[in-house]
Specification:
It is built from 27 helices and 39 strands. With 874 residues, it is α+β, with helices and mostly antiparallel strands. Strand 30 and strand 31 form a beta hairpin. The mean pLDDT is 91.
Length: 874
């Protein structure tokens, strides 16, 4: 019996089998072709695909299919970020080996991803827990050691005394371990580090070359690297001195505020603080300060406390000024020199501290308004520019002029044979501690020999394999407690020795996986000629939450591997796209004051007197409709993408997550929206299905005699907009354009189906329809293949080239925008009609004419009217 409706289950299964059978998406390394490397951030194999995966991989697949149709040699691989703590936890909780747990999850998630109809080259599939993968990673670790980029040193860490492991700052919640809930201790342990700090300046400078990255991501990385220019200043201790310490070195980025200094503050693990540990009050304070950890975000939220050491120092430019030295809980030993001077007038943190401990607040900059007396009375620091006051020889200078003048004076001032100050550039970026006390991770290929010291495992002995018989019954690192695994002979002298039991941070695994896809079966980590061909990744797609750590580490690895000679490429990702999150209403009932959340499939909605109300399915009890929030397991506002694919089809799921809003913004899930999307897919299929018999009668070489019923120029413009919007990843606009085309084609297709269309109408309609099927195929590939087959066309849509269009009907997508300074036209910029305000502002400020007019000054205001004007006020 003939189908009268589009059967998504039959279609999805059929075409996925055909694509797989003919290896349509398998990529052969051919360096002669024009390449395009599309990559989505690989998933952790939790076992279940979620909506974030659906949206992320739909975006990537659309781009891969689009670029392939345009004639590019596309690489679109997939793998698994498979090591990590969840598998360790599953082993502890369920008594299952992390290897089995992980590979079972990979098998399950792979089926789910394949049900989306992704154009993945699965022959390149990798998992970071595969022995072959971590063998190559261990080789890279040894290369890092060879080039001096690995060090082992003592470092303060967050120690969980119950789980007996080091925790990252993000795993410490309110001073307690995220899993054990134990109070965290600050300990100093010997750790392995990768020297990312050696590349601080390069990583910072190169951000300017990443012109196709979101500006917000580059700003986040710039702030994380945190370059600052300042000075190291020596402050002489004049009372309360400690044996062998007669001065305190302070790093500051605001040396011009030195005449407003009213205290010095040192870190709780500063050498002076350690020397005073015999005092019970200081010992207690330092212990409490260390509980806070080293996370800057946590420190910023914590109340600022200090304790007076009794030490006094002399201001190097004002010998009559002696100020107290505090130990403070907001100063970090690993930034600058572990000591700061506090100028309350120019820093809000210092202002709050001075108010709390009744320290002097000296106005040293004259602001325009309000006056300094008002600021001090209100407890507000002044952060702007102005004229220096109460600052000796700096009086009358701007604060920018004073910066240079005070550093010069301090450099010329000699104390005990050396300048009081030296200019210094400091970065917030710290070396990357990679050691983790976990069993399920890449072993560090090091042996500790009592005779030879640290010994590298020879490359021919790699991989250092994880043991199969791991016990999680004892707290701490199972590798450390293993009875035999850690015992080994030294490869240099043959003496009894111990393996390194720390494993690598999983961020190491994800810092080079995009390179491994290029030659996934090679015995070496990478092949230079292939890397040079495929890198950089042309389009990388992932969540904004990875803007700093993962992306920064991946950039560092690529710079390092460039240094080692693996590749001539330095930047790994040419173009970056950060997709938005998917949100949903929350539903809950109150249990006292506690919210008990319900899943969407546990409630039903009902319109009562024009108001939407929610009720629990099981007992019809009233349910409160809460706010719309990011889908999360804790709020239970999740929709299972597998159910959506099963009920409506892969194309409906793909189309819906791309159609509601711009793909880089958050979207709200709507069941009614999914149903409407499904009806639209049915509509396309039905229109073509019903007209197929008449359309098949059209000659293979038809002769058009003019335009019939719809304007060729109109459809041309829509097709060109579709192409443009695909290029810009404006996928919601692509969907809107497709709706337009379908609406245009609806009337002639119905006429043709009813036998009312003439030959010329059929010719034009068929030609337009063939193009439509090709341009919808990146988003709705299964539907497109079905429709192509309905028309009796040979081959697969996925193998068709992107349509050529009559360029005489060219549509202009760029516009000219005037750029003004103080209301007078100075220049103009050519931009896309869809350019946003930030892009317009940036483009205008990059004009040479505007730079010359500004002469380095910062504009007071920039007024941007999209598609109209940019006005810079100076």
């Amino acid at each position: 019996m003939e189908e009268t409706r589009y059967n998504h289950q039959q279609s999805d299964s059929k075409w996925q089998k055909i694509w797989d059978q003919y290896e349509v998406f398998k990529t052969i390394n051919q360096e002669s072709q024009k390449k395009y490397y599309v990559l989505e951030m690989f998933p952790y194999p939790s076992g279940s695909m979620h909506m974030g995966h659906l949206r992320n991989y739909s975006i990537g697949d659309v781009i891969a299919r689009f670029m392939s149709a345009r004639g590019y040699h596309v690489l679109h691989p997939m793998g698994w970020d498979a090591f990590g703590l969840p598998a360790d936890n599953a082993a502890r909780e369920h008594g299952i080996h992390p290897k089995k747990w992980t590979y079972d999850n990979i098998a399950s998630m792979k089926k789910q991803l394949q049900s989306m109809g992704l154009s993945i080259d699965w022959s390149r599939e990798i998992a970071t827990c595969d022995e072959d993968y971590y063998r190559c990673q261990q080789m890279l670790f040894l290369d890092f050691m060879k080039h001096g980029l690995v060090i082992r040193k003592k470092s303060p860490v967050n120690w969980d005394p119950v789980d007996q492991t080091v925790l990252a700052n993000e795993q410490v919640v309110d001073g307690r371990g995220w899993r054990s809930n134990a109070l965290i201790e600050q300990r100093e342990l010997t750790q392995w580090f990768l020297k990312i700090s050696d590349f601080s300046q390069e990583l910072l400078d190169s951000l300017d070359t990443l012109t196709e990255w979101p500006e917000k991501v580059k700003i986040m990385q710039k702030n994380w690297i945190g370059r600052s220019e300042g000075a190291d200043i020596r402050w002489e201790i004049v009372s309360g001195a400690i044996e062998n310490i007669n001065e305190i070195l302070v790093y500051t980025t605001r040396p011009e505020t030195i005449f407003g200094a009213s205290f010095l503050a040192i870190a709780a693990d500063h050498p002076i603080a350690k020397s005073l540990s015999h005092r019970a009050d200081i010992r207690k304070f330092c212990a409490e300060a260390k509980q806070i950890g080293t996370s800057l975000s946590i420190i910023e939220k914590t109340e600022k406390n200090g304790i007076d050491t009794g030490i006094r120092v002399r201001n190097p430019l004002n010998f009559n000024s002696e100020i107290p030295v505090y130990i403070a809980n907001f100063v970090l030993m690993d930034y600058g020199s572990g000591a700061i001077f506090g100028c309350p007038f120019a820093d809000q943190r210092d202002m709050d501290f001075a108010k709390k401990y009744s320290l002097p607040i000296i106005p040293i900059i004259k602001p325009d308004t309000p006056n300094s007396t008002d600021l001090i009375a209100e407890g507000k620091a002044y952060h702007g520019n102005g004229i220096m006051i109460n600052s000796n020889f700096l009086n009358g200078m701007t604060n920018l002029e004073a910066f240079k003048a005070v550093v010069l004076r301090l450099e010329q001032t000699i104390f005990k044979g050396s300048p009081v100050a030296t200019k210094k550039v400091v970065f917030k970026l710290r070396d990357w501690g990679i050691g983790r006390q976990r069993a399920w991770g890449c072993p560090i290929p090091i042996i500790h020999c009592p005779k030879c010291g640290i010994v590298e495992v020879p490359k021919e002995h790699l991989p250092v394999k994880l043991p199969e018989d791991i016990s999680f019954n004892i707290p701490g690192n199972p590798l450390h407690h293993h009875p035999t695994w850690k015992n080994v002979s030294c490869t240099k002298c043959g003496a009894d020795a111990l393996r390194e039991t720390d494993t690598m941070d999983t961020f190491v695994d994800s810092s080079w996986y995009f390179m491994r896809y290029v030659t996934p079966h090679s015995k070496d980590p990478a092949n230079k000629s292939q890397l040079d061909y495929w890198l950089p990744v042309d389009q990388y797609i992932g969540g904004i939450e990875h803007a700093v750590l993962h992306l920064l580490y991946a950039r560092f690895f690529t710079y390092a591997m460039n240094k080692f000679g693996y590749t001539q490429v330095k930047e790994p990702f040419k173009r970056l796209f950060t997709q938005g999150m998917i949100s949903h209403e929350t539903y809950y009932q109150l249990d006292g004051i506690k919210k008990k959340y319900l899943r969407p499939d546990e409630i039903f909605l009902k319109n009562i007197d024009g108001k939407i109300c929610a009720f629990r399915i099981s007992d019809n009890s009233t349910v409160i409709i809460g706010s719309v929030e990011k889908m999360s397991k804790s709020k239970k506002n999740i929709i299972d993408p597998n159910q959506i694919i099963q009920s409506y089809g892969a194309d409906t799921a793909r189309l819906f997550v791309l159609s509601d809003s711009p793909s880089d913004r958050d979207m709200i899930w709507s069941n009614s929206g999914v149903e409407a999307t499904h009806r639209f897919i049915q509509k396309i299929w039905r229109l073509i299905h019903d007209a197929r018999t008449e359309l098949k009668k059209v000659s293979s070489n038809p002769e058009k005699k003019g335009q019939e019923l719809y304007d060729n120029q109109v459809t041309y413009k829509i097709f060109k907009l579709i192409e443009y919007n695909y290029e810009k990843i404006y996928l919601n606009k692509v969907v809107a354009n497709i709706h337009e085309l379908v609406n245009i084609l609806q009337k002639p297709l119905i006429q043709i189906a009813e036998g009312k269309g003439n030959e010329n109408l059929k010719i034009i309609t068929l030609e337009t329809l063939e193009k439509l099927i090709i341009v919808i195929s990146p988003i709705m590939p299964h539907l497109a293949e079905d429709c192509w087959q309905l028309l009796g066309k040979s081959g697969l849509v996925v193998q068709q080239k992107w349509p050529n269009f009559d360029h005489s009907l060219q549509v202009e997508t760029d516009i000219i925008i005037p750029v003004q300074i103080n209301g007078k036209k100075k220049d103009s910029i050519k931009i896309s009609k869809d350019a946003d305000a930030d892009f317009m502002k940036k483009t205008a400020l990059n004009l040479d004419s505007i730079k010359n007019s500004l002469q380095g000054k910062k504009p007071k205001k920039i007024i941007v009217v999209p598609q109209r004007i940019v006005n810079i006020v100076i």
